[in-house]
Amino acid sequence: MRIDNPLITVITVSYNSVSVIEDTIESVLKQTYPRIEYIIIDGGSRDGTVDIIRQYEKSISFWISEKDSGVYHAMNKGIDRATGEWLIFMNSGDRFYSETILSQVFEHEYKSDIIYGAVELDYGFTKIIKRPYPLECLPLHMCFSHQSCFVRTDLMKKTKFDTNYSIVADYAFFLEQYKKGNLFHQLPFTISTYDNVNGISSAPNIKVLIRHLNELQRIEVFHGSIHFEILKFLVKRMIRCVCPKFILKIYYRKVND
Questions:
Q1: What range(s) does the Glycosyltransferase 2-like domain occupy (predicted)?
Q2: What is the pTM of this model?
Q3: How far apart are CA 141 and CA 130, in angstroms?
Q4: For residue 63, what are the β-bridge partners?
Q5: CB crowding 149-174: b at 16 or more within 10 Å, else e
Q6: Is CATH 3.90.550.10 the classification given to domain 8-199?
Q7: Under DSSP, is residue 100 helix (H, G, I), strand (E, B) or coil?
Q8: CA distance 71 to 161
Q9: DSSP letter at 133?
């Protein structure tokens, strides 16, 4: 049991997110945990996102709205501003799983560099809890959700996200830490709800899929056929279009078991 309450930095990155930003902000501000530094980095939204942020600015430690070079550039700007002991990204559209989750996590003291838990995947028509894969799978694929992961802030400041990637920079970061021997610890909690409808790496777009696979090849993780992966993607997309929702619910539960 930990006696003190470490300062936790929560960073939200947003861009033209007027329909989802408020849910994210509310999920942070409603946390029962007493010491939160909340930072919002907006990429120059023009759809009303900034108006919503302004409504909450008295409760936000720092926010800015300006053009950036992509999501990881924006996340790095948030890291630069962070002063907490631990850091977590809760980007626009994503939410903490419960109002008490930060209090649950930081009742305890950790010697690890990175701590992570389960994620609730929100597909729009159903929600499914996805637990982390064994850490030994990390050299093969991302085995936990970034939105359900806390990293020591000093570690993130030393090794920020590689902005040469547009989709997999978070995975590249965690893979590098794993190879360096930094300590990971799995938590017995569901930390966040991930917006699997609007998330970048889950977007139903062939161009995004190809870019994702190409980036995985660059970090020497994906060695398969891009054409085969595109075919799989098209089949899954067709299934989503023609199947009733109750069948899709069964499908996604099996996929995420």
A1: 9-134
A2: 0.85
A3: 15
A4: 40
A5: bbbbbebbeeebbbbebbbbbbbbbb
A6: yes
A7: coil
A8: 10
A9: P
